[in-house]
């Protein structure tokens, strides 16, 4: 198995081996409760004190508080609660406190959510005020100066988690001092730990939360700094642990592990230097520029952490980039890991006012200060492989033509889709209901495949395809007169099953027939014999809906209907298609797959990842059987063949099990009762094989 290259360090990090050993020791040999006065408790207390003293020295805490907690979110909650309780008390005493809760536009979502939560619960009813940033991601100091007089609490961050942009902490402090602002100030220092020098007591910062899992400690352990004299209200009360600042028995395993990481940081003998990390980032950036034409970096390297790159590639979505990197076992992120599941542009990049295509298509590549030259070398090789895979799949420009595709290709966007009917032998194709969103992708595909577009057809009248024709240029057929649906004025005709003679286009050995139905058009694709296209010979029908009464009698039982709307990711439908399929009956885990392969040696294994993912794959499923690559975008073409062999057994696989489940559901719904999906996909299968 090829080892993974983990480049998502801003989301979390692996645990330092020495930290694992320290946690194991705390759980095994030094398991006492640090609040107990016997020897076992005193041993644990000594471990706790040692970790705290190291943290105090490293962070320059001075006379301030330094407490252990569960992580940055708890630290942010505690800081916000402490500041807002103090503000309410001051207001009740008649003091003017300001009306604004100011937070940076690029703050982690935990900050504005905490502000809104405690502002509401405490009944303060202050106004949340978003502080803008400039195009480089730096806080707008002029805007801060303008609102400082009304600020009650200011929340900024030391370094951004998505872009790595380093804040001008000295500049923010200068504005607060020069304006006489009395607001409390919280600085999120999560990404700064181990990457920026910190001397907190020498600043005006009132609160600074930290999280251990961003720097090789386990999840569930963190710290909060509170400046001496800053107000403090415990978030958790009870037994009085942590000097009554945070009750609950301390997480000694986590504290021991974090203490070990902090000690290594203090010694300076474990992590890479700033210059080394900058050199590694430069090498990754060069590899990305070589592999991905037109790449744009969204963070200014001169003012960001040396461990973070944020980039976008013209014409590629973040999902496609994520998929190709993941196939190559390179782990990256689309923006913040906390919101990666949400299909939305990056609010951080939106705040920096970058174009939407960059904000929506951004990828974050980040690493920790333990990385070494060998891993960077391997990462650069895999980045090159990803670029080659994207070229072969016609997703980025290439000087050579890729392997020619044949049959049907479906491109989908939010419930609607474009269809491409391809004929490799004649290097010609027809586009049906192309979406404006697909103009660039279709142009790149046609050019890369060196196809000639015979026609651009629509199933409803009045759709504008001028921009697509312009983009296709020489790859579009010589312009001839066409009707409102895009059908060219050509003499070819074909006779349908009901005897009517209709206009037709020839695509190699297949015929595309045009059927009018009031304000709609339908297109039938099949093999005509002596100028006649019988119902049984129609393999595919293209229409605006999943069912078209006008096609009755013109299509056969095996015809697959390909609608231009696909809200439920059904890909296609058939005459006897079921409405819904239970997921449980078609999911196989890795053990179930092996058992099925043992009893049915002729099982067909079908990888539904896209071509570029398959080409970039570092590992394939290690099973006793041949894996066939059939991208989900080409499922309809192959479904027609699989349905002709109803007794065959099909197992679909993909990266995570989501796309393979859709494929299996489609085949089951169409009537193929021996279709299955590998639950958890290649990701869980790799774990099962390793175990």
TrEMBL record:
PANTHER family: CYSTEINE DESULFURASE (PTHR11601:SF34), CYSTEINE DESULFURYLASE FAMILY MEMBER (PTHR11601). InterPro entries: Aminotrans_V_dom, Aminotrans_V_PyrdxlP_BS, PyrdxlP-dep_Trfase, PyrdxlP-dep_Trfase_major, PyrdxlP-dep_Trfase_small, Rhodanese-like_dom, Rhodanese-like_dom_sf, RibonucZ/Hydroxyglut_hydro. SMART domains: RHOD. Gene3D superfamilies: 1.10.260.50, Aspartate Aminotransferase, domain 1, Rhodanese-like domain, Ribonuclease Z/Hydroxyacylglutathione hydrolase-like, Type I PLP-dependent aspartate aminotransferase-like (Major domain). It comes from the Bacteria. It comes from Duganella qianjiadongensis. This is cysteine desulfurase. The keyword Transferase applies.
